[in-house]
Amino acid sequence: WQGKFYEQTAGTSMGSPLSPVLADIFMEEFESSSLLTADLRPSLWLRYVDDTFVVWPHGPDTLQDFLQYLNKQHTSISFTMEQEQHGTIPFLDVKISRNPDGTLGHSVYRKPTHTDRYLHQRSFHHPSIKSSVNRTLVQRAFEVCDQDNLKRELQHIQTSLQRNGYKPNRIKISKPDQRVPYTQGPPTVSPSVTLPYIGPASHHLQRILRQAGVKVYHSSGNKLQGSLHTHKDKQDSSSKPGVYRIPCECGKVYIGETGRNLPTRLKEHRAHGRRGDFDKSAIVKHSHINDHKVDWDAAELIAPIQFWHPRRIREAIEIRKHNTVPQDIGFHLNDIWLPLLQTDGSPIP
């Protein structure tokens, strides 16, 4: 950020698929040890990821002491607390309330900043995407609300969808059918394709592909997100792994792949030349045999690719597309793909 690199000193990286698993394991251990040694314990402790619903039967005076006790158990864990107001409290997307008979009621919770703004009926999206808005809201109402709050929530959904341009006769507020049809034998996997939605032509193409047994899914076209630029500093492409190209003064090039950065790989090539290990670098061997000069400064990364197998495939493709020095052709490509790689009209060996 602004030319500076920051190191995360605790926890896993943001976005890592391992993060929620490790966090859950840590919290289970934290809860077991902390609740076991507490002087007073809640009668109910329910947690979803990092949100916890607690029933405290010991009065409000001792609740603050319990919060301070939890925050002293680990230096990296800090709890905040929200208490019920006027007999209600939100937990995730559920609003929990006390009923006069002592039971708990539950309804859909919306933040004060919620505007009931959903995908408008006149927006240029496939009809199935618009109908999913109706279906998702109704399904959540049936899953979250009790019988006393369900009718009120369904009425709210109907009013909100009408404000977003949906016609009353097209709004469905009945309980979605979640039954899965029973089939004998292994499930059949149908071919599918995702296409951009472009209006009536998409519907026509969908009917044709459906007759051929192909499922069609539609994606939206240009979005505002694609026009917005990130504020992060751009990383130099040469610092990434990928497929690279080294030119020679004779017009030929060397194509290679590396899991390290390009400067490191170039140093290895040049080191082979200084030590006389010409068989370890095709470009160095070509330069030595033909007394050619390698343009090391013009070497470039032509395809940043992180994983080894895709890199090997791309390397083989680029070798076929370029006029290369004598080198290993790399990953075997079926000859059926060669016409697609022939971009300049010259034959591909």
Automatic annotation (TrEMBL):
Report what the protein is called. Reverse transcriptase
Where the record annotates domain GIY-YIG, the positions are 239-315
One Pfam family from the UniProt entry? GIY-YIG
Residue ranges annotated for the Reverse transcriptase domain, each copy included? 1-108
